[in-house]
Amino acid sequence: MSVRTVTLASSIAVALACAGVSTPAHAQHAHGADKAPTPQSADHSKMDHSKMDHSKMDHSKMDHSKMDHSKMDHSKMDHSKMDHSKMDHSKMDHSKMDHSTHSDHPPPTGLPVITDADRAAAFPDIEVHTAHDNRVVHMVQFNRLEAWSDDGEPGQAWEGHAWIGNDLHKLRLRSEGEREHGRTESADLEVLYGRAVAPWWDVVAGVRHDFQPGGAQTFAALGVAGLAPYKFEVEATAYLGESGQTAARVEAEYETLLTNRLIAQSLVEATAYGRDDPRRGIGAGLSTLEAGVRLRYEITRRFAPYVGIAWERAYGETADLRRDEGEPIEDARLVMGVRFWF
């Protein structure tokens, strides 16, 4: 065998020896590279998800019912670009979520939590309910204190009342009268006891004394006074005289608030008698009807000047008696006066 042949054989042997050693190692490396790590061996706790773009991820087919999110820190995750419209939360079980740590948190507005002590202070137990105020109070009021001129002759009229008492019981005084041509044409005074029987309504009983016309006469009085629906102030009283004469008087007032201080007061009053009394110029039936409108300006709530129109007409036998005396049966006049109370 020649030297050239030996050399070639030796080179081939060396090459084969090297190939046999390196081939298993490379095969093992290739197999290891193709093998994916199992989920159990992957550690996500050190992975930074803050730079991941979740906006293009489709979560609609993901089953969250078996996922444990209790140890996940979502504080650094940016959800602003995530589309939740296709996520199905219907299979998520919230029954095992612990909200107990939120019970002591203040309301979102920052207001303190309402305690039982706060509720007790706001809604105390009411043991005694006072239906009426027992304080004794009083008032004197002149609704009309006015004057006018009739063919150069002055005239005056008044209507006022006073009372003292509490919400349940009152002592009332009422007076009304008129003067013309320097003499008193009519004047009366009533002393009444008032007893509240309903909200805004009193029953009144007492006596009425007429000074004029035609001499003095006394009546027993019984009636009601109060505030009717639509804020009409009403007084209705029946009378029985010492000579068997009977009478009735009904008065209604209504106030229209034009401004806070400018007020229009409307008044209607009707008087009727049971029998003729020529000495006093009174006939049976409807005797007189009065109406008027007075516009007042309240300088203060206690004092208000006014101007107005007053109208009066006699009816029936009373009108006939006035004709016999040469007196008009109807009269209208412009009046000026003041309304005050204290």
Can you tell me about this structure?
- The chain has 342 residues and is mostly beta strands.
- The protein has a domain at 137-341: monomeric porin ompg (Porin).
- The protein is built from three helices and twelve strands, in the order ααβββββββββββαβ.
- It has helices spanning 3-34, 116-122, 316-324; strands at residues 137-150, 153-165, 169-180, 183-198, 201-212, 217-228, 232-241, 246-257, 262-273, 285-297, 303-314, 330-341.
- The longest helix is centred in the first third of the chain and has 32 residues, at 3-34.
Query: What is the averaged pLDDT score?
Result: 80
Strand order of the largest sheet: 1-2-3-4-5-6-7-8-9-10-11-12
CATH-wise, what's the superfamily of one domain?
Answer: monomeric porin ompg
Q: Any idea what the shape is?
A: elongated
Total helical segments: 3
Radius of gyration: 52 Å
Low-confidence stretches: 14-42
First-last Cα distance:
155 Å
State the CATH class of one domain: Mainly Beta
Percentage of helical residues? 10-25%
Q: What structural class should be given to the helix and strand makeup?
A: mainly beta
Largest beta-sheet characterization: 12 strands, antiparallel, barrel
Question: Would you list the SSEs in sequence order as H and E?
Answer: HHEEEEEEEEEEEHE
Number of strands: 12
CATH topology (level 3) name of one domain: Porin
Strand content: 35-45%
CATH architecture of one domain: Beta Barrel
Keywords: Signal
GO molecular function, one term: copper ion binding
Protein name: Copper resistance protein B
Pfam families: CopB
